[in-house]
Amino acid sequence: MADKPPIRKSVWREWIESFVIAVFLALFIREFFFQAFKIPSSSMIPTLLIGDRLMVSKLWYGAKIRFTDKRLPGLAKPRRGDIIVFIYPEDGKRDFIKRLIAFGGETLEIRDGDIYVNGKHIDHGPIGKIYYYNRGPYGHEGRSIRVPEGSVYVLGDNSASSSDSRYWGFVPEANIIGRAEFVYWPLTRMRFVNPHESKR
Predict the structure, then answer these.
(1) pLDDT tens digit string along 73-132?
(2) Identified catalytic residue from 57, 58, 64, 98
(3) Which of the following is catalytic: 43, 151, 159, 198?
């Protein structure tokens, strides 16, 4: 009795299986490793421009496990001066990008355009090069703001035109998606955006 010829998958079935695997891998990478983000406003000028596309690393702080408040182990903890992407506290459907300025338990004051944390002038890294305007209920001149435990205080680099913690308060640490790492588009602006020079 002659052997039956091996059953070959149809071309369509092979294509569909390859497509499903590719989609699964893409979703897995987006969920736990990297997420693309497009700059929607001028709030981070001159560091980031409207239309810049960048990769946000979830590995750095540890990806958040969906539907929980837990995170996977990360490479490091957030540092002062990091540019972070987070879920906007007043609208869970929107993601914002700002620079991390102060941590829970710290006191912050904006004085003459400078940042003071726990009474100490922050003059190192990118924070020391930006003039911050006194605006909003959480940014008045002469007012010391205490950041609640479990939250962070964030500001845009374009202080004259940024909706940030000065206006709406603090970002729960659970809302942090990841750290902005690399501008990949347009090609003329391709570069790393977090030079690892910040200090806590």
Answers:
(1) 778 899 999 999 999 999 989 999 999 999 999 999 999 999 999 999 999 889 999 999
(2) 98
(3) 43
CB of 148 within 8 A of CB of 104? yes
What homologous superfamily is domain 35-192 in, according to CATH? Umud Fragment, subunit A (2.10.109.10)
Alpha-carbon distance of 186 to 172, in angstroms, equals: 32
Q: Is residue 98 flagged as an active site residue? A: yes
Segments making up each domain of the chain, as ranges: 35-192
If DSSP codes are grouped into helix, strand and coil, which group holds residue 57?
A: strand
Distance CA 124, CA 113 (A): 14
CA-to-CA separations, 102 to 7, 19, 148, 149, 158, in angstroms, rounded? 63, 44, 10, 11, 17
Share of the chain above pLDDT 90, in %: 63
DSSP state of 127: G
> Considering the chain, what percentage of its residues have pLDDT values greater than 70?
84
Cβ(21)–Cβ(137) below 8 Å: no
64 noted as active-site residue: no
Global pTM value: 0.83
Side-chain half-sphere exposure of 118, counting CA atoms within 13 A:
6
Distance CA(99)–CA(83), nearest Å, equals 4
Helical spans, DSSP H, in the chain: 11-32, 165-168
**pLDDT score of 200 more than 70:** no
